[in-house]
Design goal:
CATH topology of the largest domain: Isopropylmalate Dehydrogenase
Oligomer: single chain
CATH superfamily of the largest domain: Isopropylmalate Dehydrogenase
Largest sheet: 10 strands, mixed
Number of helices: 12
Helix content: 40-55%
Structural class: alpha/beta
Distance between the termini: 23 Å
Shape: globular
CATH architecture of the largest domain: 3-Layer(aba) Sandwich
Bound molecules: nicotinamide-adenine-dinucleotide
Radius of gyration: 21 Å
Number of strands: 14
């Protein structure tokens, strides 16, 4: 088997602390499953601004292009907030997404039964929740042209945007979603607004066409307003949801909050070669950086996603997820997920516990 490269980009704030723990787990799983992974590291965000005056140095971009997958901590912090737009740490992230053409955003919302009390919904509604939102990330109304604010003949100003998707864009995100459903519960719900928006009439048509290529996946359609309601009414009815950029932006945050714990949420952004960038959903948490108390589990679970979706190593991914489950069963909790009867642990102790459970 060919060697494959994983690029680690710790970034800022708690980024280095959580990436250290994820790297420990990845190195162990690499040995255990003989995955032949090699690891590189790079600078991104504020850390790169400090050293190279550029949030995405050429060297990092070059390494990212060559890597099979990227694991990122987080970027940003008050230190860089006053810089002009082009020199903001976030530009490093956006630059990676656009340069690598990462059009598919995968956001699982998993509620571990051990943490069911963290949700604002009743435990029986959310306990054991495991859904995946597949959001189109590089098209739709956030990027459509023309756009702007114009002066009408009446003298009034009008703001406008364009919601457009080509068949190619719909088909490629559809394929990612159908394939994700095949690897999971084999149910896909496509979310649109086909009663009002022509662009999503086409979206629905293409999803129906694709269905014939995935006979084992059950496809359903739902209007976005209903999907928003169903997500809080009975979220466990969903397996995989696929939707466009704007609806996905909103629904993925809604779904994330069903779980109540930001320190547990992973994400992936993939391109058509399945090359991907994996990162926790949370930010760099400057308020707790350097204290050794950040929850490394979102990053560790992101590493598991990386093994599954970019490196095709399902068994290794499942082993990490099982280890995380065991650690939660043991009652080990970082401060952010602490509950009655739990044992409070540091970032490093949490990483060590997952390692031991492997
Ligand atoms: P944040 O996610 O960093 O923090 C929100 C709250 O959650 C904080 O109280 C923080 O301590 C806590 N928290 C977050 N992750 C945690 C973890 N792993 N363990 C324990 N507690 C955790 O969001 P914010 O405060 O809005 O943003 C802080 C910085 O991060 C900003 O500079 C922002 O631009 C940046 N940011 C980066 C990303 C990214 O890199 N993808 C995403 C969001 C925000």
């Amino acid at each position: 088997m060919m060697s494959r490269t994983v690029l680690l980009l710790p970034g800022d704030g708690i980024g280095p602390e959580i990436i250290t723990e994820a790297e420990k787990i990845l190195r162990a799983i690499n040995e255990k499953f003989d995955l032949k992974l090699t690891f590189e590291t790079g600078l991104v965000g504020g850390a790169a601004l400090d050293e190279e005056d550029n949030p995405l140095p050429d060297e990092t971009l070059e390494k990212a292009r060559k890597a099979d997958a990227i694991l990122l901590g987080a970027v940003g912090g008050p230190k860089w907030d006053a810089l002009p737009m082009a020199k903001r740490p976030e530009k490093g992230l956006l630059g990676l997404r656009s340069n690598l053409k990462l059009f598919a955003n995968l956001r699982p919302a998993i509620l571990y039964p051990q943490l069911a009390s963290a949700s604002s919904l009743k435990p029986e509604v959310v306990s054991g929740l495991d859904i995946m939102i597949v959001r189109e990330l590089t098209g739709g109304i956030y990027f459509g042209q023309p756009r702007g604010v114009r002066q009408l003949e009446s003298g009034e100003r009008q703001g406008y945007n364009t919601y457009a998707y080509t068949e190619t864009e719909i088909r490629r995100i559809g394929r990612v979603a159908f394939e994700a459903a095949q690897q999971r519960g084999k149910k896909l719900c496509s979310v649109d607004k086909a009663n009002v928006l022509e662009v999503t009439v086409l979206w629905r048509e293409i999803m129906n066409e694709l269905k014939s290529e995935y006979p084992d996946v059950e496809l359903s359609h739902m209007y976005v307003d209903n999907a928003a309601m169903q997500l809080v009414r009975a979220p466990k009815q969903f397996d995989v949801i696929v939707t466009g950029n704007m609806f996905g932006d909103i629904l993925s945050d809604e779904a994330a909050m069903l779980t109540g714990s930001i320190g547990m949420l992973p994400s992936a952004s993939l391109n058509s070669e399945k090359q991907g960038m994996y990162e926790p959903c949370h930010g760099s948490a400057p308020d707790i950086a350097g204290k050794g108390i950040a929850n490394p589990l979102a990053t560790i679970i992101s590493a598991a996603m990386m093994l599954r979706y970019s490196l095709d190593e399902e068994a290794a991914a499942a082993a990490i997820e099982a280890a995380v489950n065991r650690v939660l069963d043991q009652g080990l909790r970082t401060a952010d997920i602490m509950s009655e009867g739990g044992t409070r642990v540091s970032t490093r102790e949490m990483g060590d516990a997952v390692l031991a459970a492997l």
